[in-house]
Amino acid sequence: MTLGSDDYAVATEWTFTAAAIVVVALRISVRLLYHRSWPNKSDIWVLIGLLLNIVLVALYTWSSRLGGTGLANYVVTEQDEIILLKISYVSGVIWDIGLYMPKFSLLALYYDVILIVFRKLRMALHVITGFIVSAALVTICIDLFWCTPIPSNW
């Protein structure tokens, strides 16, 4: 098997994922070793986002191996095509959920930083949180239910 453009794309994605793992590991290690405290809510959202990214890149790698990511002359069986469509469906949802993890992490940080005594600022934070949560739910629902019945996607 020769090294094609799909392989370079997969290698690049895993390289960026490895860099993200290093950055998040450094963030958590500073929290544990320097501050001597457990990860806070903001760290948890970042960890969830990282895990979703790892799953997403693994799905992309699997899809690439089945021949579903490039324009090369792959011979894809009907069973592989069904698997590729299912991977595409699941990865869209994982992408959308992972896209909101940094937003939730920043919101958690703002809830720690903005004290209750700042009533107007705290109220604005609640409004922004409501907007972001509702946008996340709408985005995820659109991805999940864009075609009914769901099995008609494959």
Write the layout of secondary structure elements.
Elements: H1 5-34, H2 41-66, H3 78-113, H4 119-144
Transmembrane segments: 14-32, 44-62, 123-146
Pfam families: Fung_rhodopsin
Family: Belongs to the SAT4 family.
Q: What does this protein structure show overall?
A:
It is built from four helices and no strands. The protein is mostly helical and 154 residues long. It has one domain (5-153). The protein is flat. The two termini are 29 Å apart. The model has no long low-confidence stretch (mean pLDDT 85). Keywords: Membrane, Transmembrane, Transmembrane helix. The chain crosses the membrane at residues 14-32, 44-62, 123-146. Residues 26-154 form the Rhodopsin domain.
Write a brief structural summary.
The chain crosses the membrane at residues 14-32, 44-62, 123-146. The protein has one domain (5-153).
| Uncertain stretches of 5 or more adjacent residues | none
How much strand? under 5%
Shape designation: flat
Distance between the termini: 29 Å
Q: Rg, please?
A: 20 Å
Number of strands: 0
Structural class: mainly alpha
How large is the count of helical segments? Answer: 4
Jot down its keywords:
154 residues, mainly alpha, SAT4-like, Rhodopsin domain-containing protein, transmembrane, membrane, transmembrane helix
